[in-house]
Design goal:
mainly beta; Immunoglobulin-like; 3 domains; five-stranded mixed beta sheet; 7 helices; 29 strands; disordered N terminus; binds CU-O-CU linkage; binds copper (II) ion; oxidoreductase activity; oxidoreductase; EC 1.16.3.4; Multicopper oxidase CueO; copper ion binding
């Protein structure tokens, strides 16, 4: 993979580029190639740095040894090479890879150091899901362009606190994406590859979303949702059946309007215009070009899942905390910002255990040393608004499951998002809305060493909203 710093907008066919499972096909454009793997396959990847910044790549969602995980401690410099070797040990699903360089993740991912990974396995094969041209990857990103049509990353302290929000929605690197389809069933693999934008996915004609897969695998059975919240780094696989639709008809996948994303704070910070978090806009258009008779039937059952519950916990009385807080105008996890080699005050987790983890917001809003700045003429003030931003929390290593999700504040904002969370299935990233308190269950099997957990709002991550777990 040659990290390309191309910033032109190229056209991209939108089709999944496939060959034998181990092949790599390059997408023309700023994104990296799609890597198609099979479970059990051993891979070796030569990663070269030919740019003027340090880089390292992380395989988001894959269960790999610590040295292969793309921890920023392994970043390489111009002219250097990193050789990754690992075995694909994840169920069939959609994963991705992206730059994970110390304090440069946001800008490097923005410039294109990211790409999709598909993993296939035998259980999935049996389902005979739509494939080839009927399987469409949708990498959703928001970008801003200069007048010369070059990618433009907008800096500034306030923007970093909010997270970057672009004004143009791209699918697979292309604006105004339209996909010609036949009147039959499709498998859509969606990745939110944006730095900080959260999408509320819905079809424009009100058709419910049929979800067949989450971050780390297919579901046991398809589930329908009126809409699905997709935070940065999350993936969702949809079954979309266009059968019965007339030739020439069009359907648009949209991001619907919602509240609680921090748009009010954006306005306070002077970020007017553009595309605020929570605004509604079209994402991609599907246009029926051909009527066909037969379609695939949606399977009633998908794949068996190893269901984790409280009784699987290694130490049922222990809960590992991930507390979201803020101090000195920096977001923190468990009262700290990132320290590369932090061995002290970090969560130590014995290997080959299953842990309960609670992700929640700091209770106290202010107090000495808490940054201050509360109140003021504009109500809750900047500080209070910062404390009520959503954070997509991601944990490296194995996929987890959600045990419970609780909203502690009665809020009308939450009403606008609450039906869009997928409770079942494997996850590696969970969106924590303001006021939410979430319990997850996660195995820490096979590998020891420092693994990361962080906010996947990439600006937050680069500001230090990241920590190490020491698995020993
Ligand atoms: Cu996709 Cu550490 O992240
Ligand atoms: Cu990751
Ligand atoms: Cu965050």
């Amino acid at each position: 993979i040659l990290p390309g710093a191309h910033t032109h907008v190229y056209q991209y066919s939108g089709k999944l580029l496939k060959g034998p499972a181990h092949t790599v096909k390059t997408i023309p454009g700023y994104l990296g190639p799609i890597l198609n793997f099979e479970r059990g396959q051993k891979v070796r990847i030569f990663f070269y740095n030919r740019i003027a910044e340090p880089v390292i790549t992380h395989w988001h969602g894959l269960h790999v040894p610590q040295k292969m995980d793309g921890h920023p401690m392994y970043e390489i410099f111009n002219g250097e090479r990193f050789v990754y070797e690992f075995e694909i040990d994840n169920p069939a699903a959609t994963y991705w890879y992206h730059s994970h360089t110390h304090e440069m993740t946001a800008t490097q991912v923005y410039q294109g150091l990211a790409g999709l990974i598909t993993v296939r396995d035998a259980a999935e094969q049996k389902l005979e899901l739509p494939t080839d041209e009927y399987e469409i990857p949708l990498i959703i990103q928001d970008r801003t362009f200069t007048r010369g049509n070059q990618l433009q990353y907008l800096h500034g302290r306030h923007r970093r606190m909010m997270g970057f929000l672009g004004d143009t929605i791209l699918i697979n690197g292309q604006a105004n994406a339209t996909f010609p389809v036949k009147s039959r069933a499709y498998r859509l693999r969606l990745l939110n590859g944006s730095n900080s934008r959260i999408y509320k996915l819905g079809w424009d004609d009100g058709t419910p979303l049929t979800v067949i897969g989450t971050d780390g695998g297919l579901l046991e059975a398809p589930e329908t949702f009126p809409y699905v919240m997709l935070a940065p780094a999350e993936r969702v696989e949809l079954w979309m059946d266009f059968s019965g639709r007339e030739k020439g008809s069009e359907l648009t996948l949209q991001s619907l309007g919602y509240k609680g994303g921090g748009a009010r704070m954006g306005r306070m910070g002077g970020m007017r215009g553009g595309l605020p978090q929570g605004k509604s806009f079209p994402i991609a258009k599907f246009s029926v070009k051909e009527r066909v008779g037969e379609s695939h039937q949606l399977p009633k059952k998908l794949v068996p899942i190893r269901q984790l519950s409280a009784k699987d916990l290694t130490s049922p009385d222990r809960t590992v905390p991930i507390e979201i807080g803020m101090r000195h105008m920096l977001f923190q996890l468990n009262d700290q910002t990132f320290g590369m080699y932090d061995h002290q005050n970090i969560e130590r987790i014995p290997v080959n255990t299953i842990q309960k983890i609670r992700i929640f917001h700091e209770g106290r809003m202010s107090g000495s040393g808490r940054g201050g700045g509360m109140g003021g003429p504009r109500g809750m003030g900047m500080m209070g608004m910062m404390l009520s931003l959503p954070h997509p929390i991601h944990l490296h290593g194995q996929q987890f499951q959600i045990l419970s999700r609780k909203q502690n504040e009665s809020s009308s904002d939450y009403e606008t998002v609450k039906d869009g969370f997928i409770h079942n299935g494997w996850k590696d990233t969970v969106l924590v809305m303001p006021g939410e308190d979430i319990e997850i269950i996660k195995p820490f099997e096979d590998y020891t060493g420092l693994y990361l957990y962080h906010c996947h709002n990439l600006e937050h991550e680069d500001l230090g909203m990241m920590r190490n777990f020491d698995v020993y």
